[in-house]
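We emphasize that the prediction below concerns an isolated chain of 413 residues; any contacts that depend on oligomerization or on bound cofactors are therefore not represented. The input was used exactly as deposited, without trimming of termini.
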Amino acid sequence: MAARDETVTTPRPWLLASAVALASELLFLFRVTVPDKPVFDEVHYLPAARALRDLTGPANIEHPLLAKELIALGLRVCGDTPLGWRIMSTVAGSATVAGVFALTWLLTGRTRAALIGALLSVLGFTVYVQARIAMLDTFLLAFLLWGIVLLTAAMRDGSAVRWTAGAALLGLATACKWVAAPYVAAAAVTFVLMKRERPGRWPGLRPTRALALLGGVSVVMYFLTFLPAFYYANEPMTVARLLPFQWDMYLRQTQKLPHHTYQSNWWTWPLLIRPIWYLYEPVDGAQRGIILLGNPAVMWGGLAAVAACFAGWVRCGAARLLAPAVLWTFAVGIFAVIPKSLGFYYYYYPASVFLSVALAVALDHWRDRLGWWDEAYLLLAFALTLYFLPVLTAAPLAHAAAFHRWTWFASWV
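Result of the prediction step, given as a token string:
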């Protein structure tokens, strides 16, 4: 039995989404300056951001520039301090939580479901940790998620403005990391298939025009982010060098890399087999740790939600059930085919957040059948958040062996 038919909505969902973003920002900013030293891949991206801030020359050239430009903006605004390093990541994390709210609201039309989705994205751990570290993936997902939101919104009224803005955001996501590029192709395929099945979707957007906007705008926005490189003091970018530079990036991203302690295969990520300790050492006068690990209740429960959404779609054909399940499957599946010699759990970041959407949609769809169990599930996720909080926030730990309290399995060490 599906959830009740009535829709509990708000007349101004975007105002509520803004409030969700603001609350998230305040949460992510709390003690964001701890530790006061670079953490994990900040050792790579902070020097690259400083080079962009000062326009000294190319650095960390295996990735596009936008995410590092945004980190550099934080350095400009707040100084070369821990707050400056991470301030823009907190903004991207807050935008991600609001994006989960918006996407869930578009799929369900219900404020309650949207709030649950946003809450689960915060309780899922991965957004919280990534919003407090200067890494590229944080910005990638913020742009990607809002690109998906705007393209989905354009489905209803055929707004060329929303469609173009969504395409631009997908281009900006790709300008953070190339892993966003397949989503542009996926959006094109989705448009063609849905337009063929139901011509009423995206009214007023003819296929030729829509695909031209999607491809053209995303590509233009991607290349515009390279403008600062034209002003480097050393080895400045040129128009003739721009396309060959993309090939250089590809060669660097596909090179064979040495073994890494925290490397893992893509199929292990949904099972939480090999998380990553971003930090575990004495720092700021105490033993501290930060682990990138999804909340087991959200990550494993989310897998059940994805399966339920697929099954529900087979039975009733509801697109709102299919969409989050396909998003998660696609986000994981692309890593099965892209030519990367090493994988890491943080690559699962977008998929882990799509699980929040799948959970919220599933809980909403089967709400009558679940009764009070959805509230009990949220309480479990919150309880696990409190349990893991010391190693999500770099809180002072009792001693060097304190990590045993949170490492449920040997592979979590």
